[in-house]
Amino acid sequence: MTSYIKIPSHLTPSDPQGSELLARERSKATFDVNELTLALYGSEELSRFKKILKILESDPILDKSNIYYMGRTELFKYALRKDKRIIQLAATHKWNVDEFKIASRLVDMSGPYSIHQSMFLPTILGQGTEEQKRKFLNPAIRHEIIGCYAQTELGHGSNVQGLETTSTYIPETDEFEIHTPHLTAAKWWAGGLGRTANHSVVMARLITNGQDKGPHPFIVQIRDLTTHEPLPGITIGDIGPKFGFNTTDNGFMLFDHVRIPRFNMLSKFSKVTKGTGEYKNPPNEKLSYGTMVFVRSVIIFNAGLALARAATISVRYSAVRRQFVDKENPMILPNGQVVETAVLDYTMQQYRLFPVIAQAYAIYFTGEIITNLYKQYIDQSSRGDFSLLADLHASTSGLKSLTSDIAVDSIEDCRRSCGGHGYSNFSGFTRFYQDYLPNTTWEGDNYILTQQTARYIIHSKQQSEEFSLRSNESPTIFYMLRYLSNPSQKCTVISPSDFKNPEVQLAIYGYRAAYLIARAVDQIDNHKKSWNSMLVEINRISRAHCQYILVHNFILTLQPQTSDSMNEKRRILHNSPSLKTVLTSVCNLFALHTMEKNLSEFLESGYLSPKQSEMLRVQISESLNEIRPNAVALVDAFYLPDYLLNSALGRYDGKVYETMIEWASKEPLNGITLDINPYSEKLFRNDVKAKI
Ligand SMILES: CCCCCCCCCCCCCCCCCC(=O)SCCNC(=O)CCNC(=O)[C@H](O)C(C)(C)COP(=O)(O)OP(=O)(O)OC[C@H]1O[C@@H](n2cnc3c(N)ncnc32)[C@H](O)[C@@H]1OP(=O)(O)O
Ligand SMILES: Cc1cc2nc3c(=O)[nH]c(=O)nc-3n(C[C@H](O)[C@H](O)[C@H](O)COP(=O)(O)OP(=O)(O)OC[C@H]3O[C@@H](n4cnc5c(N)ncnc54)[C@H](O)[C@@H]3O)c2cc1C
User: Where is the Acyl-coenzyme A oxidase N-terminal domain positioned along the sequence (predicted)?
Assistant: First the structure.
């Protein structure tokens, strides 16, 4: 890339150098970083990751050095090239789905094909018959057709039952007619639709024999495979610039009585019979929402990685960045020189950043557990057993909401913790944050989704008999009975270190959730409160329940398991006392910091006393001290390479200042000629002719 300014090459940052500071941090670690990386990913995934990274890093088309200077059109073209390149590399190197996902994660840019991979393929896979998979899935996997997922409309997104697009069965020709009856029914937001896709999953109301059967998925070819023009009766366009996600062409689409064969209704679960138009009900009414459950489970896992990335940049930078001299505890170099203190040594910075490290680990472990639960559901449902679905839907809804909220808040906290440089694109936060943001809205707005979780729990509590039955079966609400059965119990903590006891932590979280649930049920059943008047409480219930799950899963991960049930990753963890020690500190910080952030609810439940809340703060401070020597090593263990981070601040080698000035010298604005004389030309309101 062209450099527009020549930077004097003899200048280096003042001592100590960033690389030296990070090396000192790394030498303080009490555990083996490589061992923790292996415990997170396993040896097989890690070696695949390294192999793929090597290929991507050296590929000129996937070079990222220019992207911070690009405008939307240029970025979009780059994203299309990069999407094509990953597909070519996948074919050359025979990558499987997991390897393809690793490559996409490393290249780290949503693109025109992203929704093809994340929603179009999974929808056909999950909702199509074998015949439909042959017709649509196979060419889609080979990228002979490119698809998108058009569910949301201009007037409705959250309320899926309120979608207006119709798909009416025409027995005479054995076709469906897809139609947009109102402007509000225009499909809107579908990723890849604007300029790229030639096929779409369209969620439309199925109407047969005059009866409205609600939204169902249909495959519609939307563009000509040769000319790439929209097919007759279909109007398509890109929806325009957005807050972020500008490398994907989110689109709109209108249908004017467009005919598709009956075959194109995805019919794994519900069907329309040829000629009679008879409708066959699915075994569970919500199976057509299956793609959303899958993607929500992926969003939970991805939230952990997003937090790890934010923490990596901000913790490394805070170890390199120095401001003021802490006179009571100055930073002294080996040669005796007193230097400014690394901002990571200020307790306020630790209080802001270390909980983000803890959130990353907590959500990573729960993400793994939810992924396994989803696999278990798919396995059972393939044998006609859908009993896990209700619980899976409830937990993925609430956890998608909670974890993406945590990630969005913490990415911004981490960015701000980098001071002024955090505001520069070179920090690696700008597009990362902008592109992460829609996770709180897509696949269900985060506030709406908490209603799904709370309703499941409240129903369970209302039907007490069924509750005890369900809670025994349910992987996520088993804890509640224990606490509901004895509402007057009090927390046993008598000294700050008692807060480190996992049983104590679980009891505190369990009582608080059970208290909120019991109170809401009382308001609804005995005080006849409406659902709408309870929405704030309902949001609290979902969050309380999901925080319990996160804490519970973290504790579970650290507990010894029978060797049979342990996979390689857990074995590494359990065979290493130093790993267990450091992760126990991280787990404690997650549990206690989350408790402190929601303290009013814990106090309100009467289980925790004000005196105990003071002890809680003492213990949090203690946990921060425990983590301090391991802070850099804990983020290093996530093994997020510079290629992914693309950050001057979060570089592994600590060369922050050298990179900042080098990247600034490449800003194209530095290379243009400007006329800054205000009187050199006449400017007209509608015909601005500045000489730039
Ligand atoms: C090759 C590489 C592959 C790579 C893959 C990588 C993947 C990467 C993923 C990351 C990238 C993500 C990109 C995403 C892009 C955005 C795409 C979208 O936004 S698309 C657009 C996304 N849009 C949205 O997400 C819209 C959000 N809105 C909705 O989902 C629904 O309107 C609703 C759930 C809010 C209400 O639904 P409504 O029909 O009014 O239903 P009621 O409330 O009346 O409940 C009735 C009963 O049904 C139950 N139940 C409900 N849902 C489910 C379910 N899913 N299941 C089971 N059950 C469910 C409920 O519990 C209740 O049970 P009960 O009490 O009777 O026992
Ligand atoms: C970048 C991006 C990509 C997307 N990609 C796709 C895609 O590929 N395909 C697709 O189909 N869709 C896509 N979407 C759309 C997305 O799924 C919807 O925007 C999302 O489901 C939210 O729906 P909405 O926009 O209708 O929000 P609304 O429901 O209009 O939300 C507005 C506000 O109303 C509140 N609200 C609404 N109803 C209630 C209620 N009952 N109780 C309490 N509060 C309520 C919400 O909390 C929110 O604060 C995408 C969106 C974005 C931002």
Answer: 32-146
